[in-house]
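Async update (no meeting this week)

Hi team, since we skipped the sync, here's where things stand on the single-chain job. The sequence we agreed to prioritize is pasted below, unchanged from the tracker. I ran it this morning and attached the output directly underneath so nobody has to dig for it. Comments welcome in thread, and please keep replies under the output.
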Amino acid sequence: MITEYQLGLAFPIARSLGRLHTWYPALVRAMESYGITTPDRITYFLANVAEETGQLQAKQENLNYSGERLIEVFPSMFKANPKKAYDLARLGAEAIGNYIYADIHRPPGYRMGNVQPGDGWKYRGRGPMQITGRTNYLRFFRALGLPDESDPDLLLQPDYGAMSAAEYWSRMGCNELADAGDFVRCVIKVNGGTIGLASRHTYLRRLRDALTHSNLIQTSARPTAVAAIPRPVEDPSTGNIHGETGDRPHAVLEPIPPMVPVPPPGYEMTDTGNVVRAHLSESAILKSARVGQRIAWGAGIATGIMTGLQALKEAFVGMFAGVTPALLMGFGGVAVLLAVVAFVYFRRIEKKRVEMHRKGIA
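Output:
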């Protein structure tokens, strides 16, 4: 199991502000209860917890959206009536929650069991995994043997919140997905999409790095009786743990390694630090080149047909009298148009090369 020291390396903000000390014991108990105990399961689970809560900061969902943000996040709900988004924003978070999470406003595959008035706000996202909706809450309450009408705010407490995250993770099959190495599927199960995927990958790398660090504490060489060592306290400015007096041993956390740059979706980083397309066939250059080639081929074929018809007309005036000059000019016009379009596409390729070169993306 990951130690509090190791988790502090991956969650430096949570550690420095004391949140880690509050949540760590509850998270460990919950993870052990639901089999989140292998390196992949641990790192996958905690990477999602970090992103969903901002390193254990958010215990419940913030629904204070502006009208513009509502339209951006829930476009299908407000496409036909954008004014509704602005009306809800003026009414506040509770009205927003009751509207966007009510089953009556959601397509069949995205309903949450929120069928009673006020369910959307009552069963908004809470806990480290931000579980949402009456159905998910009832399943969690029943898993713990609690009454269906238990207070949803129980999930704001570390023990219940951590247990809700682990129960949901297990119920959605994320342990098995972690065993298979499918991190993106885990994200989709937790998030319903891939919002914050790059950040989740960063946390995943940091957690994996943290697990390689020893949990041993560096102390001074001078021996001191265990009973004489005071309870350590954390310096909020540095995050280091110190004893109460300077002549006693003190623990020093290893420096937090810098966060590794995360390539944008669809790209990967090479050993040299260059960012390249993960799948070369998706390259904008190659796509544009293929379009340009097809247009160029079309121009060549059209020109060939025009030339052939001209030759046939001259050779067999009687048989091909219907091939008029207007028809020949039409073919010629098509050939010229296609050639112009091909030129534009190939110019686009050149500009893309320059732009991607400047950005360091191949």
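Quick observations from my side:
DSSP finds 16 helices and four strands in the chain.
Confidence is low (pLDDT under 50) at residues 216-235, 237-261.
Reply here if anything looks off.
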